[in-house]
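Q: Can I see a sequence and its folded structure?
A: Here is a first one.
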Amino acid sequence: MATLVSLFVVDANSTITRSFDFLSSKGHNIITVSSLDEIIAELETPDQMVASVTLSIPENQTEFEGRIRTIKRQEKAKYIPFIGVLQSGCHADEVCRQPFFHILEEPIDENILLHTIEAAQSDFKRYNALLKEVSSRTSAIGLIKSGSFRLQTLGQAEALTTMLSLACPEPSVVALGLSELLVNAIEHGNLQINYQLKSQLLESGQWEKEITSRLASNTYKDKYVEVVFERLSDRIEITVTDQGDGFDWRKFIECDPSLSTDKHGRGIAIAIAMGFNKLTYNDKGNQVIATINL
């Protein structure tokens, strides 16, 4: 079984190296490269699996962002969370965060870096488990014409994702996008955890504990997400509706620079990029229709 590793891109001026001993003491296997050009080679190294990449964001962000996007288009890099470290003198509002899982600012707190990497790698493990599950199965429902489903927990979301993605073209691609929509509906919709609170919970390592607590509470335990699947002559539509207050989805669709340091607005970017030809939200923001052209 391949060893999970944390990859760092470091240069002579990097301050990230000061945290390596601390991260190693917490069980992280660290490897380093000195440039972006070396990342792909590490992804192809046998017996290791890169589960996160941490790197500094330079002042010349336009060229840098283009290079990151080129790397992320590689098959082996597509699902790996990238964590950016904003150097002194750089401004967060100048960085489009979509290629990143999260953006940290110097000086870096070691515990926040640890929790951010652990959260990123948890996402990576979830993606890979989902892809493995989809690739190992054949559809038990065939070319489903339509169906309506209700779910409450993240486990139920993953099970439904597997089933519905197998009824779509390119199931492994659809699965990742659909998973993000369902997870967002549960976490941000029904459980009413906004993006600022989620940042705090992830950085403090309390995210999973809070999810479990809210799912069991009287306030949230009866809320559900409704998913409607419909196959039409030229497209598939998957409608996801939660019972939350909605959100201003326009900011995320348009990549609002002011959200550049939110580590989880990335979920919508993934859903857009993975498997769907179009996302259509209602005005309130508690319902989205994901369209797949046939």
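Q: Show me another, different protein.
A: A second, unrelated one:
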Amino acid sequence: MAKKLLFWLSLCSLISIAQAQVIHQERSLYRNILVEDNDDLRCLKFNVRSTKTQQSCFLKSQPEQLVFNYTKLLMASLLVMPEPKHILIIGLGGGTMSNTLAQLYPQSQIDNVEIDQAVIKVAREYFEFFENDNVKTYNQDGRIYIKRALLKKQQYDWIILDAFNGDYIPEHLMTKEFLQEAKALLSKDGVISANTFSLSELYAHESATYKAVFGDFYQVNNQDNANRIIIVNRNGFAVNSLNKNNIKQLNSTLLKYGVDIYSLYNKIYFTGIEQNWPKSTRLLTDQFSPVNLLNTQ
């Protein structure tokens, strides 16, 4: 059965590729960038090591609809941070998350950080990514930005870690030292949401590293794919930290973006109740972060 499923998934993927039309491509300092149209669907892809990986997609007829599963999973963070005033997004992609959050919280400050200037340009030209007085973009490495923000004594209510180099999360954005820096940038009750994966040899190492820095955390993932979102906060979560009071209002607000917050609520679990990695797992550090060796996702 599994082999048949893989066959059909591969076949569908090949059909999709055959139907897709490349409307833009360029070689940046970091990667090959492609923009493809497949009827109403437009996708940003990175071509790295002979593979194409989708970074961002949107429906041209319904740009407010979230297409990727992980972008919907990220919204579970609003159960613990319902009104973020200052938001930092590391990794722009097509600007989907920034656009969505700017619509949800038009008075909030959103800072986007993207290392690749070509990605910023493509987001603006092909994915309706918009900026204004409250939405700004910085062409920097995410870790450098955070170091400089700490020196300026900036603080954020919600930090979204969504950097991806085409193969995996950049290794210097996964270590204990980096997470400690990001933690110091949070406001009193601020949260960090990290887009990562459940089907990887790095699963245990990432989990152990986040717990070492933040204590027990929430995570939400979808059994249908490999995405998982880690949700941590500056002060550590207690068992009953999820805010149920605003779930009805949240669901009403998020439905237009294709997000079912009730479903997300039921997918969240707390590592203080269930920990599914060995206690002896080695942490990722600036001296030990062999992402290329460990990642078999």
